Amino acid sequence: MAELRATDQPAPDLEVLKKAAGVRAAALVESGMRVGLGTGSTAKYAIEEIGRRLGAGELSGVVGVATSEASDALARAVGIPVEPLDPRPLDLAIDGADEITPGLDLIKGLGGALLREKLTEVQARRLVIIADHTKLVTRLGEKAPLPVEIARFGFLSTIERLRALGLGGRLRQPGAQPYLTDNGNYIFDAQLPEQFDPAELGDRIKGTLGVVETGLFLGMAERAFVAAPDGVRKLT
Ligand code: 5RP
Predict the structure, then answer these.
(1) Ligand 1 pocket, 100 CB below 6 A?
(2) What class of enzyme is it (predicted)?
(3) Which of its termini does the chain have fewer beta carbons within 10 Å around, N or C?
(4) Are 120 and 85 in contact (CB under 8 A)?
């Protein structure tokens, strides 16, 4: 077994980093705002902090729009009033990501909420991404697959069509049954090629019969707070 030397740093606790990023983004929320509430283990900390600020009287009149059933339940539990998405813009949306490039293009959806996230965040005046430093990549697909939400009906045929585009990958199936999104769809986790044009490939995937939405979020994020052991960095 390896020995821990006095000079070794303890492994950074990713939860501490996620919380630091979440709290930083929650500080952008102002009274009266309509805020998109993201999904996942990092967005959770932002939702909790917004709830804490409301409870402490630092904020009032904030309303959330949740991007998943889980975030809806968490928001209500911490005291954030939640309303459905309607055609009005959101002042701000705060969400995590699975990959972040230096240009703030994103892969999202490992948490399975990509469709509601995109529907919500496209209406936000500002989309702020929160993450720990392990999510930084130089190109999309470097570490994570690209989640693609597909209709259940005819899903095997849809997957064939995706493979014909040159995509590897597999249907998300954590247990005996395929993973089911909040919208009743399946997810195909696509392995991206080493070199590709994200916008062009995104259009081809989106144009494939049976595909509902992809986890490519291109040009949507205004900034990202990325937490590392030496502090939280703002990327714009
Ligand atoms: C859910 C998402 C999440 O934001 C993404 O998966 C990051 O999650 P986490 O903060 O748990 O790593 O896109 O659909």
Answers:
(1) no
(2) isomerase
(3) N
(4) yes
Residue given tokens 């293009």 in the structure block: 105
Annotated catalytic residue 117: yes
- Residues contacting 69, CB < 8 A, separation 6+: 182
The reply, when asked if residue 235 is annotated as ligand binding, is no
Residue 225 and residue 128 in contact, taking contact as beta carbons nearer than 8 Å:
yes
- What's the whole-model pTM score? 0.94
Of 69, 97, 43, nearest to 216 (Cα)?
A: 97
Strands (E), the chain: 34-37, 63-66, 92-95, 99-100, 106-107, 127-132, 146-150, 168-171, 186-191, 211-214, 216-217, 223-228, 231-235
How many angstroms separate the CA atoms of 55 and 57, rounded? 5
Sign (positive/negative) of CA torsion 64, 59, 235, 46? negative
User: pLDDT band for position 228 (50/70/90)?
Assistant: very high
Report the DSSP beta bridge partners of residue 149: 187, 213
Q: Which of 75, 78, 77 is nearest to 35 (CA)?
A: 75
User: What one-character DSSP code corresponds to residue 67?
Assistant: S
Distance CA 222, CA 59 (A): 23
Any ligand 1 atom below 6 A from CB of 36: no
> In this structure, what token pair is assigned to residue 199?
């916008």
Query: Which three-class secondary structure state does DSSP give residue 183?
Result: coil
Distance, in Å, from the CA atom of 106 to the CA atom of 76, rounded to the nearest integer, reads 28
Task: Label residues 40-72 b or e (16+ Cβ within 10 Å = b).
Answer: bebbbbbbbbbbebbeeeebeebebbbbbebbb
